[in-house]
Amino acid sequence: MGRYLLRRLLQLIPVFIGTTFLIYWLVWSVPGDPFAGKCGERPCPDSYVNMMTEKFKLDEPLWVQYGNYMQNLFQGDFGQTWSGRPIGDIIATAYPNTLKLAVVALAIEAVIGLAAGVLTGLRRNGFLDNLVLVSTLFMIALPVFVIGFVLQWVLGVQWHIIKPTVSSEMRISELIVPGFVLGSASMAYIARVARTSIAENRRADYVRTAIAKGLPMRRVVGVHLLRNSLIPVVTLLGTDLGALMGGAIVTEGIFGINGIGRQVFRAIVTKESATVVSIVVVLVLVYLLMNLLVDLLYAALDPRIRYE
Amino acid sequence: MSEQSAAGTSGRPAGRLLEVDDLRVEFRTRDGVAKVINGVTYHVDAGETLAVLGESGSGKSVTAQTIMGILDTPPGFVTGGQVRFHGKDMLRMSNEERRRIRGEGIAMIFQDALSALNPVFTVGFQIAEQFRVRRGMGRSEAKKRAIEMLDQVKIPNAKGRFNNYPHQFSGGMRQRAMIAMSLALDPEVLIADEPTTALDVTVQAQIMDLLAELQRERQMGLILITHDLGVVADVADRIAVMYAGRIVEEANVYDLYAKPAHPYTLGLLNSIPRLDEKGQELRTIKGLPPNLMNIPPGCPFNPRCPMAQPVCREKVPPLLQIGAGRASACHFAEELVNRD
Amino acid sequence: MSDPTAASIVSTPPAERPTEVGAPTNAGLPENARKEKPRGLLGDAWRDLRRKPLFWISAAFIVLFLLMAAFPWLFTNGDAVNGSLSRSRVEPSANGWFGYDVQGRDVYARVIYGARASIVVAVVSVFGTLLIGGTMGIIAGYRGGWVDALLSRIADVFFGLPFVLGAIVILTTFNGSGTSNSKWEIMALVSLSLMVLGWPVVMRLMRSSVLATKEADYIVAARALGAGTGRIILKHLLPNCLAPLLVYGTIMVGSFIGAEATLSFLGVGLKTPVVSWGIMISEAQNYIRVSPFLLFFPAAFLVTAVLSFVMLGEAVREALDPKLR
């Protein structure tokens, strides 16, 4: 187990470096003058440009800049924006919002997806089963911004059930609809995976054994069947957190949430490349660590899996 | 081990432990309806071992599943007959009544213990679970009893193995654990569905000995489902031979081996490889079992039967008594028994 | 009879499953019933598909959309690009079925012409993704060893990029506000970024598929008979790994149509003068309260197109997967 963990951590390093360098290279090769418009109507004076180039070491080769950036990153320093604001501050304000939204989405998709999956897996081909199959198909197929707009328009504009946008306090009650929108596709996948898993395991020999032991149906399903069927669902949920945070940009835009999506957008428009890189790097880190966590969780859930 | 247990075809004395009476089951699939069980009748009494013998697809496992109430529905549907436990028809009981019989009245062990045991729970948990759920015992009490059960089936270091998962057991040990689990609530009838098929030959004998021993000790009725004549001979009192969802012959072991009263049984016996016939070709039964969606008219065995006559293609031979404690479903049963 | 040893004499040596046909099963289903009608997997799948109304509906829609993309003039003689401001945001009527947008352009004509960009981008991206991912997956799965390790890590790197954010970064780099790309260049760029972000999934799919079939007896036999690597891959491996790839590809066309729309909606994908559903939705979002029909029609077309492809893929997958029956 310990050796497995070590090996996985070692494997993460090249992937982390590769992904972050890719991002770094892409972001810093965004064409256009980063200082355009920084000094009012006129082009910036040479002295200013020279000063900034010196300060941010812009004349160094890209890989040296990347090395410096990584070095600072490991000391907890995300660097500064052009105007000198620490990027760490931006991350500290924007990330919790996105995380909160993603966690709400995850909770909603886990509860609804799992419930729908279990119910339909147990009773296939009924009315509920077909309803869930069709609605999950829609949720998978509909782009998030369409679902977002429709719900915002119907619930917020027409029926006034919710406020069309989320306030800066980010109350959980306000996040339910945005969370639902963000998690809709994953919710559909969870429901389908849970359904297939339950339906496959329902005919398994050990379920038969549990019934033959004279256990009540509640226990057969709730303990024996569910425990086995949950393994793929938990995997899906675990890897989803990173994807939800990365995909939150559209939902944040629609519901006016000040998360990393908005910050990335603003940073791209204002050519704050360092900010873009930092936000994405943290996201990549979250994603990689969650994947590792899921792998370890797997061992806890399925005793047959042993790691060498 | 009763000396002269009568074949349960007609006589129906009161106090029978478990009786299957004219049971009919069909599988409704996309491709059509398969008549899997077509009027099966057998019984087992306390302290007695009935072996149900037949090829795969003959319906022996499906009968057992119907008794246990674990038939997959759909596709399987019971279309007729009764399964009586202490004289009461289980097929007409409420789900709750039936559930209480499982484990306590009738228990079952399965062919492949690896898939029959839940892979994500420890063996100990799965045995102790019954004491906790069915007997309302506390955790430590249930654990103690479960370890006792593991001891009884001769699993070495039972205490240490309590917390092992099924995949950490060897095949034989796993089947022992399965037996311990099925016997936990001290059932009156135990159904063993091919309990040794998945095991090595040497382990097979050990498991069969264990089963026979436990059955004697507890005076259980044992229904042993198998396709293996060798297994049957050692432990069974009576044998019911199944073919295409019917009982084709029923007899005590000695009679059946000495004078089979059905050509199918004869074929089975002849196909056992024998040391004194080394070098000769194995005598197998020609052909395949019938398609259960389209069972031929007349005797279902007639297309493969070396003795088939025109009557066999027209009339289904009923299962008739042909002497004390034995029955056969062959038009020529008497001739078979009396020939030399 | 009470003496078990008497019987044991008769039975020695133990019979070796004399009558067993095939592996012993507990299923109780008559095996010979299934053996009666030998059908190939594809024949089975096709028989299954033919009965599904969903398959026919989605296939019909796909044909319709493909016709729209190829010959938009069959469906409308309106002008998708030029409008007159006098008709700005005129509601749907007998003259303009779907109404007119802010710049007075015929929404019906735009929705029809929008099919082309959306579908072309999606189909091209899917082909590229399948080609890159499939090739990498075959190489990784077939060669194994350090090649596999290297390719898998590269796939991990790209897989680690969040899809939307990654596409935004790529597209702003090459398709930012300062650039002046032509219509075709923009479409190529959008396709390229979808491919770059999409290929790792296909690679993993193909790799595991190849790993599963690589050791199959018939391939080992072909190798033993001296068949070359190229021949084994083309003649033996590929046909067997193709089914899951095609299913995934069909579903991917649907999700890429949605992805293209999302990117256009965010303002980093296709841009005017290109006509696409995503652009229309993006333009309509500011008028959602006053003229919801501007959002409704392109969204309806988009959703129908995405659904059709996803549904077709699902239907084929279910038909191919015996476990789901």
UniProtKB/TrEMBL annotation, chain A:
Occurrences of domain ABC transmembrane type-1 (ranges): 95-298
Record keywords, A-Z: Cell membrane, Membrane, Transmembrane, Transmembrane helix, Transport
Membrane topology qualifier: Multi-pass membrane protein
The organism's place on the tree of life at top rank: Bacteria
Compartment list: Cell membrane
PROSITE patterns linked to this entry: ABC_TM1
First-listed, main subcellular location of the protein, grouped into a coarse class: membrane
Family as reported in the entry's similarity comment: Belongs to the binding-protein-dependent transport system permease family.
UniProt-recorded name of the protein: ABC transporter permease
Species of origin: Micromonospora deserti
UniProtKB/TrEMBL annotation, chain B:
NCBIfam families assigned: oligo_HPY
This protein's name: Methionine ABC transporter ATP-binding protein
Family: Belongs to the ABC transporter superfamily.
Superkingdom as given in the UniProt entry: Bacteria
Signal sequence region: none
Chief place of localization: membrane
InterPro entries, A to Z: AAA+_ATPase, ABC_Ni/Peptide_Import, ABC_transporter-like_ATP-bd, ABC_transporter-like_CS, Oligopep_ABC_C, P-loop_NTPase
GO cellular component: plasma membrane
Membrane-crossing residue ranges in chain numbering: none
From TrEMBL, chain C:
Name of the protein this chain belongs to: Peptide ABC transporter permease
Gene Ontology biological-process annotations: transmembrane transport
InterPro entries: BP-dependent_transpt_permease, MetI-like, MetI-like_sf, OppC_N
Record's GO cellular component terms: plasma membrane
Organism: Micromonospora deserti
Keywords recorded for this protein, A-Z: Cell membrane, Membrane, Transmembrane, Transmembrane helix, Transport
Compartments it resides in: Cell membrane
Pfam families assigned: BPD_transp_1, OppC_N
Membrane topology: Multi-pass membrane protein
Family according to the record: Belongs to the binding-protein-dependent transport system permease family.
ABC transmembrane type-1 domain location: 115-313
CDD domains found in the cross-reference section: TM_PBP2
Xref: SUPFAM superfamilies: MetI-like
Transmembrane segments: 54-75, 119-142, 154-174, 186-206, 237-257, 293-312
Chain spans, region Disordered: 1-35
Signal peptide boundaries: none
Coiled-coil annotated residue ranges, if any: none
